[in-house]
Amino acid sequence: MSKITIGRQFCGPPNSGNGGYVCGVLSKGLDGPVTAVLRAPIPLDSELNLETRGGANVLLGEADAVIGQGGPATQALPEPPPAPSLEAARAAAERHIGLTNRVHPICFTCGTGREEGDGLRVLPGQLEGAETGLVACTWTPHRNFAAADGTVGAEVVWAALDCPGYFAWVEREGRHGALLGTMTGEVVAPIRAGEEYIVLAWPILKDGRKEIAGTALFDAQGRLVARSHQVWIVLGPRPATAAPAAEAAGA
Questions:
Q1: Going by CATH, does the domain composed of 86-249 fall within 3.10.129.10?
Q2: Cα(136)–Cα(86) distance, rounded to whole angstroms?
Q3: Sign of the torsion formed by the C-alpha atoms of 42, 48, 49 and 50
Q4: For the chain, which has fewer Cβ within 10 Å, the N-terminal or C-terminal residue?
């Protein structure tokens, strides 16, 4: 068992850890794709226990209550749509809804109020000419998030993959609240600080209060370097069930 603390810098909601960041923590030390499940809000600035049980990482809070766990993938990863060009992804970022509306300004991943090197500023917007909900942006990891060799840790990469899935559904369905429940992901190539990457996200399926999305990270040449499958839980009234998104969206 080890002790870890999720600092306030790595928040999602104001008083809880960023879901993707914590899922990335739960993926560390495990081979291949990992499925991480979040079962409770993640306390900030509090000492938590991280232990291994049967090949899975389990994060424990007060009275050993399970906050989240990560283990070998139980969900197949989606095949992403083709990567847009850097220019198209940069243009999409200019349409990010958080630039004109207050969404989550302090979130570690998508907070528009966070400075470079403090937050990730992954700000996806609708991709021009694409099906509604296919969102993109670029991301250049700051050196503050890199190890001595320049590579970025899994927890930061998973955080970068997190919020774009939410914004895919915001573009498709309009503004609404949702929390990340489950994230299955893999990092297939090293992510390096100072290099520009393409972020892509798309809606897959809505099932009651569950919104399922795919996200992907590509290098500047359009090669896949990381991807995820996400299940978001919608807050508030139960929405109507919708059919799967079009196959062109990468379901």
A1: yes
A2: 10
A3: positive
A4: N
The torsion angles phi and psi of 129, rounded to 5 degrees, stand at 80, 0
Q: Name the burial class of residue 198, with classes exposed (0-12), middle (13-18) and buried (19+) by CB atoms within 10 angstroms of its CB.
A: buried
* Concatenated DSSP letters of 129-172: TSPTT-EEEEE---GGGB-TTSBBPHHHHHHHHHHHHHHHHHHH
Handedness of CA 206, 31, 138, 106 (dihedral sign): positive
Each residue's pLDDT tens digit, 139-191: 999 999 999 999 999 999 999 999 999 999 999 999 889 999 999 999 999 99
- CATH 3.10.129.10 maps onto the chain at 2-72, 86-249
- Whole-angstrom distance, CA of residue 102 vs CA of residue 68: 29
Q: Give the other-Cβ count within 10 Å of 61's Cβ.
A: 18
Over residues 208-220, the pLDDT tens digits come to: 999 999 999 999 9
**Fold designation for 2-72:** Thiol Ester Dehydrase; Chain A (3.10.129)
